[in-house]
Amino acid sequence: MARSNRNSAIELLRIIAMFMIVFHHFALHGGFNWDRGTLSIPFFWYHFMFLWGKIGIAIFILISGYYLIKDDDLSHTILKILKFWGQLFFYSLTIYLLFVLGGKISFNLKTFLRSCLPITSSAWGFASNYFMLLLLHPFLNKMFLNLKQKSYQILLIIFTVLWSIIPTFIEFEFCSSYLLWLIYLYGLAGYVRLYGFKPHTSTKSFFLYSLGAIIVTVFLDGILIVVNQNPAWPNITLNFYGLQSIFALIIAFTLFISFSRLKMSYKKGINLIGSTTFGIYLIHDNELMRNFLWFDVFKNNTFQNTLWLIPYSILVTLLVFCFCALIDFIRQKTVEKGYLALVKRYLTKIIKTADQVIMRLTKIIF
């Protein structure tokens, strides 16, 4: 499905999800250092910012699963993978070279080569795992599409308990991993696309469920902050902010259902901004950009003990979001346009070559 024809309500959710992620990174990479016993409005706001990162990631994968579960076009799949690789390669290498030319870092051959092969680096945790998800999704589709609905439901229930509920309360991943969690989210959204979810429950109800889940999560987190700041009380932890948190999952899933059912006419501007969201992630969360943005440019931690942290964090998040979106829009209309034209020109040959390589490998191995 072409991006321009996608549901604008879901693209709006994609935009909101990226704003959540940038907002989270303002706190995560901002150099904040709170003393034990701190109980202040800025400290509670810091925790509130932290909440949204993994929710945003979960929403991104749910959207991907929703669109890709019915994608059985080999040419489209390969084009999508090559498009993603081109975007990741462009930002990884360009940002590195800009920092070298700007005198921020010295040229290093090993780092240069790592920038040319970005998915091999742990610095791109989410992007590397998402790339693997794209590679695997045709096979995942065959697995999920061949499951009977009841078996599909049982599989999702088992993984929800083992990979979300248990890790939230005992802080143990239970034989899961980053990639496996993305596959679970992919399958969860795929189920919604194939079979629907609570069709008799209104869109308004799901929005209220989302709001309720957010309120409960923030309230419980606030209680634990107070409890854990008192050395006389036992330390109680719940994994509110982890990738597999049941709290993040419920909020992300109910928001996803809400927006997937929202009736919205096609909005070109929303879809256009939605197309830049992964570029926003690749720019602002590049390992070289983190210190430059949050320490050198915006100096986040200088607002640690003031109420100005609240409006400042929102303003900075908006600025980073908009500036990075503009950069990616320019990249799409220039570099990517030429790159994709070249890829499409040779796509048939690429598919044929890839098929020959795979056939030879299977003969050698098997």
Rounded average pLDDT:
90
* Low-pLDDT windows of residues: none
SSE topology string: HHHHHHHHHHHHHHH
> Percent of residues in beta strands?
under 5%
Provide an overview of this structure:
Helix 1 packs across helix 14. The protein has one domain (3-365). It has helices at residues 8-28, 41-50, 52-68, 74-101, 109-116, 125-145, 149-170, 178-195, 203-228, 246-261, 268-274, 277-284, 287-297, 309-345, 347-365. It is mostly helical and 366 residues long. The model has no long low-confidence stretch (mean pLDDT 90).
Summarize the structure in short.
The protein has helices at about 10-30, 40-50, 50-70, 75-100, 110-115, 125-145, 150-170, 180-195, 205-230, 245-260, 270-275, 275-285, 285-295, 310-345, 345-365. With about 375 residues, it is mainly α.
Features of the shown structure:
366 residues, globular, mainly alpha
